């Protein structure tokens, strides 16, 4: 069977159910064959066949989704996305780090709508925004000092390891170049 996305849209699910209805009504396929052809479980096809027999084709159409409707319109969500892309500092926060709590505060400030932070991840994900966790970095770290230390000490350490016949640590294969910049990382062959 060909690759299929993990989540189908409501329209795609409806299209699949209606395709199953056509195959079942044609009478040429068993429920098991329809299930294999559409990549669904036989129990789903059995349920669709029952609905088709009892209620007709309209029973397989998409129904409105259950649950509370969004408090913001689509345009307002796009505005939230735009505000977030401008940055957290531009929105009045001390740092550039967005948290769900901060997004909830931003929505409350601009639209006077309260969202609990626990329920913002999904709508933000639908906007194409995802969780970004910054890499941990020590406050005391001095990158210039680390770079100088590597340039000064690494050749001595490397010579010692090679003289002892020990392999170089795995992390060196990613970043250490042996030769000119155009040579790929790793030992020469």
TrEMBL record:
It comes from the Bacteria. It holds the Pfam family HTH_33. Residues 95-151 form the Winged helix-turn helix domain. This is Transposase.
